[in-house]
Amino acid sequence: MNNSAGNAGRLLWAGLRALLVLTVITGVLYPLAVTGIAQLAFPGKANGSELKDASGKVVGSELIGQTYDLPLKEGEETAAPDLKWFQPRPSNGLGSNSVNTRYSIKLSGATNRSGDNEDLIKWVTEAKAAVVKDNSTADYPVKPADVPAEAVTSSGSGLDPHISPEYAEIQVHRVAENNGLDVREVEKLVADHTDDRILGFIGEPRVNVLQLNIALKGLVAKG
């Protein structure tokens, strides 16, 4: 009986020591080592790929898309886009935070609707009409056929921070007009912030909307 109790005690003590050692290694030393390496090797990415404006204020992450809307007016369910800025992809169908309404949470996910879904067709049709209307100026009419697919559809996450150069180009005249800028200045801004395919063949050329709008803000300030 005493031997059994002694054996059980030794096993329990061995298990406790293993738990303590593994907790220190995997719960303290390993996370500290990984965090330290990340901070030394690529601190920007390790800290969320934050982007700052000219004043040094963090205004977002280059990995997460955000909206550029006017303040919501009384009686409105959806805020109107602020046409001074380049607009991102739409993010319809993601729902809203109904669990804790003290916080505004941007949910991530796809609409999961088929190509013949009535809601999706309605969203795309309305989005295309809005893109044509919002971006047409007196000397630059936008045609429905010119509107790229990503201008009227959300990405799989709904948080895509990029748009195509084609969608950015459609917005150039409207952005220039609303900010009192020369069209050629804004076109150069888009060209300077267009990233090519990764390694020359992976993905498509893209424009990070937040980076572009930060540069636009700087250009407006200079003017």
How would you characterize this protein structure?
- With about 220 residues, the chain is mainly alpha-helical.
- The chain folds into two domains: about 1-45; about 50-220, no CATH class.
- Helices cover about 45% and strands about 5% of the residues.
- It is built from six helices and five strands, in the order H-H-E-E-H-E-H-H-E-E-H.
- It has helices at about 1-40, 45, 120-135, 165-180, 185-190, 210-220; strands spanning about 50, 60, 160-165, 195, 205-210.
- It starts with a helix and ends with a helix.
Helix content: 40-55%
- Sheet with most strands: strand arrangement: 3-5-4
Alpha carbon gyration radius: 25 Å
Domain tally: 2
Q: What is the arithmetic mean of pLDDT? A: 87
* Silhouette: elongated
Low-pLDDT residue spans: 93-97
* Portion in beta strands: 5-15%
The count of DSSP E runs of length 2 or more, i.e. the number of strands, is: 5
Largest sheet: 3 strands, antiparallel
- Give the termini distance in whole angstroms: 90 Å
Assign the structural class, choosing from mainly alpha, mainly beta, alpha/beta, alpha+beta, or little secondary structure: mainly alpha
Number of DSSP helical runs: 6
The helix-strand sequence is: HHEEHEHHEEH
